[in-house]
Amino acid sequence: MIKKLKIAFQGEPGANSHLAIHETYPRAEAVPCHTFEDAFAAVRSGRAALAMIPIENSVAGRVADIHHLMPHSGLHIIAEHFMPVHHQLMAIRSATAKSIKTVESHIHALGQCRNVIQKLHLRRVVSADTAGAAREVSEAGDKTRAAIASKLAAKIYGLKILQANIEDEAHNTTRFIILSKTAKWMPHGGKGKAVTTFVFQVRNIPAALYKALGGFATNGINMTKLESYMVGGSFSATQFYADVEGHPKDRALELALEELDFVCQPKTLKILGVYPAHGMRETFKSRGR
Q: Distance from CA of residue 139 to its chain's centroid?
């Protein structure tokens, strides 16, 4: 008997992360976890082989806590997945668009569906996650309550979709990273483009960040993401999280990382993953032209 691949995600069955698992690994078993830390722990303990974690959204921005948790998780990024997010307005079978008075969902989902919420004059109720909101509406059996969640959640909890694809922005897309206990770098020189993700802390010297990034400019490396975070509650210690195009064994990126390491705090430059660039990156590039 073939052992089924298990993939952990944060949220309840029917969450968008659950849907992302269905898209990328259709035969895998999704393992719901209460928190992101629980999902990381499931991979570390062997209860799951991988974790599907949302890291940023084209409308709502970065997902809180992930960048803080990643460097200390002991896990490695082995792939990424971009998923267009479609929100559904759902309620119990006897409900109608006129009977509903409140709508429940994750705060990001509510924020991404303002137009429909205002049009129907619904009172917003913040829930821990989209799928959890769908479950609670289903269990309540109250036709005045609605939820915003995925089609998968509607199917799982037996809810009727009152309005489909109610998101305000057509480009609403979430980027997920896929994490493994074992590092698995994309082969150098293989087909397709590579993305390298790393964290670092710069020395507390004048123009430190300018010097840290200079090597990427002079070596022609495209940095697609750079975010900063305070470390240990200190206003003077800053950690940076970055994505760049290229493989660390490419000579240009190798030189850029060497220059970066020279101005970093000792032993703080850490590569979190080297993985294939998702095809949707090219779509976003064409939109920006």
A: 28
Q: pLDDT tens-digit profile of 236-287? A: 668 899 999 999 999 999 999 999 999 898 889 999 999 999 988 877 665 5
Tell me, what DSSP letter sits at residue 221? -
Which residues are bridge partners to 264 per DSSP? 202
Q: Give the span between the Cα atoms of 80 and 178, in whole angstroms.
A: 6
Identify residue 257 by its one-letter amino acid code.
L
- Residue 24, CA distances (Å) to 5, 84, 276 in order: 12, 13, 14
Going from the C-alpha of 133 to that of each of 17, 79, 90, 97, 155, the distances in angstroms are 15, 29, 10, 17, 14
The distance in angstroms from the start CA to the end CA of the chain is 50
**Arithmetic mean of pLDDT, 208-233:** 89
- Contact present, 15 and 9 (Cβ < 8 Å): yes
Token pair belonging to 225: 């993401």
Q: How many Å apart are CA 36 and CA 69, to the nearest integer?
A: 8
pTM of the model: 0.90
Confidence (pLDDT) at 289: 47
Euclidean distance between CA atoms 140 and 124, whole angstroms? 17
Among 9, 36, 40, 176, the one annotated catalytic: 176
**Which of 16-20, 126-130, 280-284, 285-289 tops mean pLDDT?**
16-20
Q: Establish whether 198 is a catalytic residue.
A: no
Is residue 132 a contact partner of residue 12, using CB atoms and an 8 Å limit?
A: yes
Handedness of CA 281, 23, 180, 129 (dihedral sign): positive
Active site residue 96: no
Catalytic residue among 9, 36, 174, 198: 174
What does the pLDDT read at residue 233? 66
Spatial distance between the Cα atoms of 39 and 109, rounded to a whole number of angstroms: 21
